[in-house]
Amino acid sequence: MLRMILLVLPVLLLAEGADKKAPRASLVELAPLSQGKVNRLQNFIGTLYFNQKSDLASETSGKVKAVHFDSGDHVKKGDLLVSLDSAILDKNIIASRESYKEAQANYSKSFKDLKRYKKLLADESIARSEYDAVSFATTGFNSRVNALKAGLDAQLIERKKKNIYAPYSGVIAAKSIDIGEWVNTGASVAQIVNPYIADITVNIPEAFVSTIIPDNNISVTIGNQSYTGKIKGVIPVGNKNTRTFPLKITLTSDKALYEGMQASVSLAKANLENAMLIPRDGVIKRFGQQVIFFEAKGTAQMAPVTIVGFFEDKVAIDAPMLTPGMQIVVKGNERIFPNQPIQATNK
Q1: How far apart, in Å, are the Cα atoms of 114 and each of 38, 136, 327?
Q2: Are residues 108 and 188 in the same domain?
Q3: 24: confidence class by pLDDT, cuts 50, 70, 90
Q4: For residue 84, with 0-12 CB atoms within 10 Å meaning exposed, 13-18 middle and 19 or more buried, which class applies?
Q5: Residues 143 and 153 in one domain
Q6: Phi, psi (deg, nearest 5) at residue 313
Q7: Which of 148, 178, 227, 320 would give a disulfide with 100, using CB separation of 3.0 to 4.6 Å?
């Protein structure tokens, strides 16, 4: 019986293998890997700084009556942050208003007298000296009104400055005062930053300066996330030791950024260099890196690549295991895997 089983088993295994079908080839489009001249990209590391960062200062002195924020709070433009005591100032404003009203009344009476004296002078009923005395008095009362009005306006402006408001929407980075403290004119009460608008400074060699075009968009990578920034320009004062010049880039983000974060940009050299070229669709992201698939004996093989530049509708790549003429998958590569059979639709 055992001998019979051993004789039948190979036959059953062969039959089972015959029932299995070979993997079906995935349809793809291929393009040859060519060689040409491109502006090779080079990566540079920069630092992120907040575009809006302010130390809020008090424009008047006084005792802190109320603080409406804390460190880390998000505030909107116009939010009340600090209130200073204004009790004495309020009383002075009342006194100034009354003095102003009195001066206005004196001026009004003197002005009416001046009109009457002018008619009497025309009728030669009074001496010229009497008219001049009233005229000079009227001028003095008018000056008094203007001086008191200016003083009252100054007090009202100072009264407004007893309240300190957020100049723009942002985050309170530091709190410098607390209730009951005395604040002098010009003293800092808080630091506010706008974490959604940033400037990036990247030091670049002289060879790249001529390729920079102000107001052009540029891709910036911050914390493994890509942003689109705008080139402000190159500051013409460089480092004499490193022969590098600061490139300034501005960007706006929907998410909060953090000052001091690392930012990287890729810039193209002015001179052309040889590189391998394939259509841009040939490079995809797989397993967290840039890769391409190439055809080898009817199967798809994967190779990691480094993008070094762009040329019209093609991308320049570096990959040690690739050689010009190899067939690269440019369509259908997003649904295939290494060693998978493939069939070209464009051959």
Answers
A1: 89, 10, 104
A2: no
A3: confident
A4: buried
A5: yes
A6: -95, 15
A7: 148
Q: What is the CATH number of the domain that holds 171?
A: 2.40.50.100
Look-up: residue for tokens 């291929």?
A: 30
**Euclidean distance between CA atoms 276 and 54, whole angstroms:** 49
268, 204 contact by CB (below 8 A):
no
Number of residues assigned to the chain: 347
CA pair distance 181, 85, nearest whole angstrom: 11
CB 317 within 8 A of CB 38: no
Tell me the C-alpha distance between 102 and 121, whole Å.
28
d(CA 273, CA 161): 62
What are the φ/ψ torsions at residue 195 (nearest 5 degrees)? Answer: -80, 10
d(CA 291, CA 75): 45
Query: Closest by alpha carbon to 175, among 53, 72, 63?
Result: 72
Average pLDDT over residues 130-156: 96
Q: Would you say residue 313 has pLDDT above 90?
A: no
Token pair belonging to 214: 């102000």
Nearest alpha-carbon partner for 258 in 192, 203, 218, 198: 198
Does residue 115 sit in the same domain as residue 36?
Answer: no
Relative to beta strand 80-84, strand 163-165 is antiparallel
- Calculate ∠ Cα 24-27-29, nearest 5°: 150
Strands 225-234, 197-205: parallel, antiparallel or unpaired by DSSP?
Answer: unpaired
Average confidence (pLDDT) over 223-234:
92
Residue among 47, 46, 44, 48 nearest 269 (CA): 44
Q: Does residue 273 lie in a domain region?
A: yes
Pairing, β 342-344 against β 26-32: parallel
**Cα–Cα distance between 134 and 139 in angstroms, integer?**
9
The rounded distance, in Å, linking the Cα atoms of 153 and 83 is 20
